[in-house]
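Journal club side-thread
Mid-discussion, someone asked how the predicted structure for our own chain would compare to the paper's figures. Pasting it here so we can look after the session.
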Amino acid sequence: MMEWVSDASFAPTDATLLSPPRDWPRCFQTDQALRDFLGKGRLGAKRCRLVRAPPPQLAEQASRLALDERDSCANARIVRDELGWPVVGGVAVFEFAGGEHQFAATRRWWNCAPGDVWVDLTPHKPAAGEAIVLAETSPNLLAETSPQKSDARAQEIRAAALAQRAKAKAEAMEQPAREDARRNEARRKVMGEWKVHGVKKGRIRLGLSPSGRYALEAECWSPAFVDMETHDEFFEDLDPNDEHYADACQMRVKGTWELMQGFISFKVNSIETVGPASQYLPLKPEQVPNLTRGDLESDGWAMTVKFNGKLCRFEKG
């Protein structure tokens, strides 16, 4: 059984076809059915070759061209116009996987690269594997696809590719702006004041400024004063009366911050303590490393900072 399948009515799936046929290339001499299929009575093949996937260098060239897996004829003409390789017309030859000596062919066009090397750059081949058997046939067999129709199709493919490239280029140009906007929005979200809740007789808070600098403040105050009496501004002097109390102190840490993916990186520039009672500070100078990070929670409104020997959970606002 031998079967001719045109592009227009091609029905078998990749799994039903073999290319090359079984026992390649000896089948040319041993399989009379294949010889008859390729001969003048059927396809009138002039030359027949096993064409493998293009080498990386040619594949890279092809990737820059506008090729459509559905139209090998238009693809071959595009390659000819872009690379100067002549078009070769014929068929791709397959053997049905379900039975021996049963063959199919489908019209196909490819190119002849320098050195008389056949190159098939159409992305999709209707059979599994990296190689395909191509047979050059007479023009009469290919007359169903006119040059004018293929040229028009090639122009359509080029136009679609140019439009796609222009769109991709515009998107690529917009991408940095979108990334900058996303980063700026993420920075705006984390800027401002962060507090550690539940600190008794004092507080720990962190302020992130737009300039990339931060202020970390840890303080304890005399029981004679309440939280409402403390200053809102960072690093303001302690109440003058506090210096008369042995349990008042403030630690002031200055440095720079940088928002990373999922965390904030902190670098310490200076640490200062004001007041006599550093032993009562909720966070002590020796617990602040030169470099640390705050791991942001998924909603971005809380983060955990690991100091030396102390874990603090800061909440925004």
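Post-session note: Residues 1-12 have pLDDT under 50 and may be disordered.
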